[in-house]
Specification:
Strands 1, 3, 4, 8, 14, 15, 16 and 17 form an eight-stranded mixed beta sheet that branches. Strands 6-5-7-2-11-12-13 form a seven-stranded mixed beta sheet, with no helix packed on it. The chain has a two-stranded antiparallel sheet with strand order 9-10. Helix content is about 25%, strand content about 30%. It is elongated and about 130 Å long. The protein contains six helices and 17 strands. The two termini are about 55 Å apart. The protein has helices at about 1-5, 20-45, 160-170, 180-185, 185-195, 365-409, and strands at about 50-55, 65-75, 80-85, 90-95, 100-105, 110-115, 200-210, 210-220, 220-225, 225-230, 245-250, 265-270, 290-295, 300-315, 320-335, 345-355, 355-365. A hairpin with a 5-residue loop joins strand 14 (about 300-315) and strand 15 (about 320-335). The chain has about 400 residues and is α+β, with helices and mostly antiparallel strands.
Length: about 400
Amino acid sequence: MNRLRNLDAYPKINEDFYQRTLSGGLITLFSSLLMLILFFSELRLYMHPVTETQLRVDTSRGEKLRINFDVTFPALQCSIISIDTMDISGERHLDVRHDIIKRRLDSHGNVIESKQDGIGHTKIEKPLQKHGGRLEHNETYCGSCFGAEATDDTCCNSCEEVREAYRKKGWALSDPESIDQCKREGYVQKVKDEEGEGCNLHGFLEVNKVAGNFHFVPGQSFHQSGFQFGDLIFFQQGNYNISHKVNRLAFGDFFPGVVNPLDGYKLLSLPTHYTGLLSSYHLKYYLGSLSVQWNQEKQNGVYQYFVKVVPSIYTDVHGHTIQSNQFSVTEHFQKMEAGRMQSPPGVFFYYDLSPIKVIFEEQHVEFLHFLTNVCAIVGGIFTVSGIVDSFIYHGQRAIKKKMEIGKFN
């Protein structure tokens, strides 16, 4: 027992040899308060998870990329807006309609009608048969494609099917009134009746995980001699106001901490008589929200967004993993020049994928790490407080002794 007693690293001093001071009491109070503050700060960090970030090379192959969008065009009617996708692999989808909802908007932005695009067609009463006569009893209707038939048995029973057949041929549907299906469905009149309306489009696209683009253009697109055109341009002359607001654009699912830079991005056109300081468009920023205003001149134009997509993986403390993406974006407006229409007017989103993916992983601080930090806080403050107290105590004694020697002399 005596040998064990000799190992005591904390020898005790008789209380008769203790001397308590005012400065020591103040330092003790301050150091205790500081210990409590740092302890609760460390406890809060221990109770809440921290996010660790890692960068790795993206080795995934053959995956699909989901693009969620919600875009409003205040000056383009729903009947003329189409969505196209294409990528560098050569895959192209024109006038995409599945998983997309269109909402007609009045001049005040109120919803007039909401429906899923591409569902059903207007029924034609007393349809016209290919031979030119009216449909007889028990005769199956097979509408003419007006020269765009792929085979002799091809039927176009609606205006949309005629437009699709024309698009596959690379032809423009310049006069829908001459097409029996379009005339009976009131296609042109429907477009005219919706003039002055706006349109909200929201939904999602499933595309290949390679560089590509998707775009919103007036009219149904078709390709001819390597160029892309819209069929409505040829019979509905005039400028297309491509003012738009990106309510939401996301590449993949939401995860905590993700910031989509285009959400709530608003682009409004100025009156046509406005003379801006710039030749093509005028930028004006408002406090409180980022709003870009520009003057659309008489020529049609293309507004382009160049998006850099960064694959991201988020794992929470429970081990649940979300495969998603982040992105950055720049934009550019290209004015259409007469005789050089390489693409239709519209809003284009060009996206490219980064070869590096970001991994976010939520983790709890280990208990031993928490305990180490608490001991460091208590021990460190206690030691530093002792040094400060000793310095003040011995300093006061030295000053007092000098003062006594001065009085004695």
